[in-house]
Write the structure tokens for this entry.
Amino acid sequence: MEFDFNALTVAESRRLLDGGACTSEQLTAALVQRIRERDPEIKAYVTVDAEMALAQARAADIARAAGGRGVLLGIPLGIKDLLNVEGQPCTCSSRLLEGYIAPYDATAIARLRAAGAVFLGRTNMDEFAMGSSTENSAFQVTRNPIDTTRVPGGSSGGSAAALAAGEAIATLGTDTGGSIRQPAAFCGCTGLKPTYGRISRYGLTAFASSLDQIGPMTKSVEDAAILLGVMSGLDPMDSTTLDVPVPDYTKALREDLTGIRLGLPREYFIDGMDPAVRASMDAAVELCRSLGAQIVDVSLPHTEYSIAVYYIIATAEASANLARFDGVRYGHRTAQADDPIDMYGKTRQEGFGPEVKRRIILGTYVLSSGYYDAYYLKAQKVRTLIRRDFEHAFQSCDALLAPATPTPAFRVGENTSDPLKMYLSDVFTATANLAGICAMSVPSYPTPEGLPVGLQILGPAFGEERILHIGHAFEKRLGRS
Amino acid sequence: MQTKNQPTALNVAYVANLARLHLTDDEIATFQPQMEHIVGYVQQIGALDVSGVEPTLHAVEVTNVLRKDVSRPGLDHERVMANAPSEVNGLFMVPKIVE
């Protein structure tokens, strides 16, 4: 084979396809072959539909021959198993949804489809997106392709691992408290969580509706810009999408940072931070400075409360959203039940894994009579303070730089016995969801032992062009160093 | 149903019942200390003074979105019903609700 198909980005694939150097069928077949070889060990995918993908690829080749030039025409993507793709399983890596076939496309999927994308399969995740390591999948534990004794992060761990293993050109993830950025950081790829309301959530299985966003996971910042542009925009099926114009995000990509003010939130550079992450961050900040950026010190004083606030709000919303899984209309139903109440309880016991049960219990508790004001209402008020912290910080800088994660990828099994310890791995990412702003993790300087570290760039609401610009300049300069 | 004696702290068995979630005795024994640990952590927000602070429901301002009250096609009935665990004549079957 002439090309290393597995390392290709979206932009490179498009150039090859447009130039006639290869067909989508060849590209798709090469990725399917790679999945067959590599995925028995990595376990990034829960479902691969090679036949359907190859049929889509052939259709894309015919469309291209007829002059079609869809932005993603013939480009094979992996899709997190939380999103509905018509006619495909959508298990959310849960026993509860085994056998469910999506009767419709999520809006983000419909837009990718309209742009010509090929869907390779569904990527593994923590059950219902609840977790930070993909170890909460009911089906399989995904391995980090950089070091297979380590986790790929989560909850979009399959999407990140698929990229790192060369098993997709790009993938989709979802991010409620860091589920795109943390696995992207752990696997050495780019992951962007858009501003709340930028991409429609219709057809995304809801975890925490006021925090969830779909976003691209890619091998370059340019690819993130391409996919974001395809998926963004107002959707009548999601009333929280905002009518903000969708620019050509690729036009924002520039290679210097002259005149850009980057804030370093001092609360994100705490004592006891992993030394390798700290060293990587220091080097990243210097690199941005060398590109012309001005570095300023800022404060986000309520950061220490973010994990508490996040786990109260996210679980409260989850406990309501997951009430739909009752065994009546789809998914698993218990074999024997005396009455509907008994059916709900047994179905949910059999269908949900331990982390989902813990979060339903916590969310129900914080909403229950007598505790609502002390937990849920109070958390919403602290959320206001966290949001104001960011508004204040963005008055003195254009974007913020922070680590994406407190540590590099941890080992499989390392955090599974202590749920709270696992929650704390979201400490640098959950704030962006609470504030509704956009944030991206891009690969930065690795640790001395070669593990990826993510540089997180946070921008104000609808500041995607700005963070893409900064990320692109950083990526290009790092690639040359 | 435990309706009279409201628990003063997190009682996993009680809350699970509110959530229509059956748990085995083993699950209750595992979850109870884990949940107490987690609740102990999230309680830290109690110390913060938030008087006069408005709650945030959505980080980005959202307003009611209305549309004309006209019918439009929904999901394909057959494809939806194909996912039903139990179905008769295009209807979802459930265990008997009333005697």
